[in-house]
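User: Can you predict the 3D structure for this chain?
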Amino acid sequence: MVLIAHIMGSLYGLLAVVFGAFGAHALKKSLNEQQLKSFETGVKYQMYHAILLLVLGFNFNLETALERFMIYCFIIGIFLFSFSIYGLSISAAKGRKIRILGPITPLGGLLLVIGWALLLYSFIQNLV
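Assistant: Here is the predicted structure, written as structure tokens:
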């Protein structure tokens, strides 16, 4: 499980840099200010959580069910949250907004919140 956290953290980090550069250069001309801000939000959240996956992989054994579920919440949450924002921003700029992606973004956000709550719970559990 540690290897999965490291691989996904590295992949998401790499893609965040690529998408950030793509947004800053290639999409700057085709997205309006609000769409560009949304795209950048997706990139930021992706990078923050990519770094988190790497840190968790280095600091936890990721052997308990709670730790595994936490990692899956972050991996799936990143994908649903950030990638749905990318899809919404780009499709809206082309005049064909993919509306089905709208409800996916908050679902991804909810998984990220659950991942953070599980991390908090694991810290509290270690205090007791």
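The chain has a mean pLDDT of 95. The chain has four helices and no strands.
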